[in-house]
Design a protein that fits this description.
Rossmann fold, binds adenosine monophosphate, 15% strand, 405 residues, 2 domains
């Protein structure tokens, strides 16, 4: 269990509180926010701080301006939607350090909210002077000078040590914001102290991008179901023909090692027992269901078959906790979304009726579960991509380490 400092642990009244949010939201060409999920995610912390009479200073990165000013990457466009969501005027400073920022911070009254300009307009946010990874300490110190307390509320950047995260924490006491708390509590509940049996469902395109994740999971889970393109690599390693499927034949030994480790750790691995095969990778392509040994040389496995979905449902029934990352097939093209949709709906039903704890996140997982109409039925869906995956890999995340007691 991660034991970390929480926002509720500190008196924020009349204090300048520097809050790291993730306002890297999708926008159209005119700069209109097309999905305000990330703005909404920051509201509980901001409203808590307003209620407790803090002076609130919001900081975030946006896009990849690479240490230079770029009009299209300005945070200015977020003032209107953010003010609307908070039902109060949010002030703006056209730089995150220096005179304009200092003046705007000095003008704050208790309960006021100020948004500073993009931290990535400064090279010091992501690069040290030598060009290595990390941040410039003097940039971080200039940012930290705005506040008396630091609140980290952006789990999605917790896998990075940047000026506006670890850099500030090197100068100020750091606490988790309410969104960060929710992430850490749920993720901890799913993997560190899960109700057992605990099952993982990992799909997606390639084994190569998830080797560390699979290696970590087999040591922690009771059951690991592998799906999607990456299951082909495991099937091929076991001697099954996968035809023209996406398959990393060069990772045969890695796949065998993961299965061997699973056996030693008493983790049952579930692979597809039947598959949906097609000659073309396109929506509506002619397809057929066949056994794992009946794929023809000119066919690709694009989804798991119905028997496999039944086996997954049985495994979900036998589990108290489910951690899901990645689709079971090429879910963007119909009908190869079927196994993902069915399994996701089944998991959501078990959450509703049987108290299953189902946590999901990373990459395409959120869009796959939304596509299935099952996202709202999960216990918790992480909004983070890379940070969620690194957490599943068992890595220490710099943004979480700074919060530990
Ligand atoms: P990832 O980002 O690793 O989670 O992979 C997600 C991608 O894997 C999605 O775009 C899926 O279309 C793709 N995918 C899943 N299963 C297959 C498959 N059997 N063949 C090809 N692509 C697949």
């Amino acid at each position: 269990m991660v034991d970390f400092r929480r926002l509720e642990d500190v008196d924020v009244a009349n204090k300048r509180v520097l809050v790291r949010v993730d306002f890297n939201v999708p926008c159209d060409d005119e700069g209109n926010v097309t999905d305000n999920t990330r703005l909404a995610a920051a509201l509980p912390t901001i409203n808590y701080l307003r209620k407790h009479k803090a002076k609130i200073i919001l900081i975030s990165h946006f896009g990849r301006p690479g240490g230079q000013r770029e009009t299209s990457a300005s945070m200015m466009k977020l003032i209107k939607p953010l003010s609307g969501l908070l039902k109060t005027n949010v002030a703006f400073a056209p730089d995150c350090i220096g005179k304009t920022a200092d003046t705007a911070v000095a003008a704050l009254q208790a309960g006021d909210v100020l948004l500073l300009e993009n931290t990535r307009f400064h090279k010091g946010e992501t690069h040290t002077r030598t060009g290595g990874k990390g941040y410039a300490p003097e940039f971080a110190a200039a940012l930290a000078a705005h506040g008396e307390i630091f609140v980290h509320d952006a789990f999605s950047v917790a896998h990075r040590a940047q000026g506006s995260t670890s850099g500030i924490a090197a100068n100020l006491p750091a606490y988790a914001g309410l969104a960060m708390e929710r992430e850490l509590d749920h993720l901890s509940q799913a993997l560190d102290i899960p109700k057992r049996p605990v099952m993982g469902l990992v799909g997606g395109a390639k084994v190569s991008s998830k080797i560390d994740l699979l290696k970590n999971l087999v040591g922690r889970l009771d059951t690991l179901a592998i799906g999607g393109g990456m299951a082909n690599t495991f099937l091929a390693a076991l001697g099954h023909g996968v035809g023209a499927s996406l398959c990393e034949h060069d990772l045969r030994d890695t796949a065998l090692e993961i299965m061997d480790n699973a056996k030693k750790a008493n983790c049952e691995i579930l692979l597809p027992v039947d598959v949906v095969a097609a000659k073309e990778f396109k929506a509506g392509a002619q397809h057929r269901v066949c056994g794992q040994d009946d794929v023809r040389a000119n066919e690709m496995i694009l989804d798991a078959g119905p028997q496999t979905v039944n086996k997954l449902a049985d495994a979900i029934d036998a589990s108290k906790t489910l951690i899901w990352n990645g689709p079971l097939g090429a879910f963007e093209i119909v009908p190869f979304d079927t196994a993902t949709v069915e399994a996701a709906k089944y998991a959501a039903k078990r959450v509703r009726n049987n108290g299953l704890i189902a946590v999901a996140g990373g990459g395409d997982t959120v869009s796959a579960l939304k596509h299935a109409g099952a996202a709202d039925g999960f216990t918790f869906i992480s909004t983070a991509g890379g940070a969620f995956l690194e957490w599943m890999e068992g890595k220490a995340l710099p943004g979480v380490e700074i919060l530990k007691k």
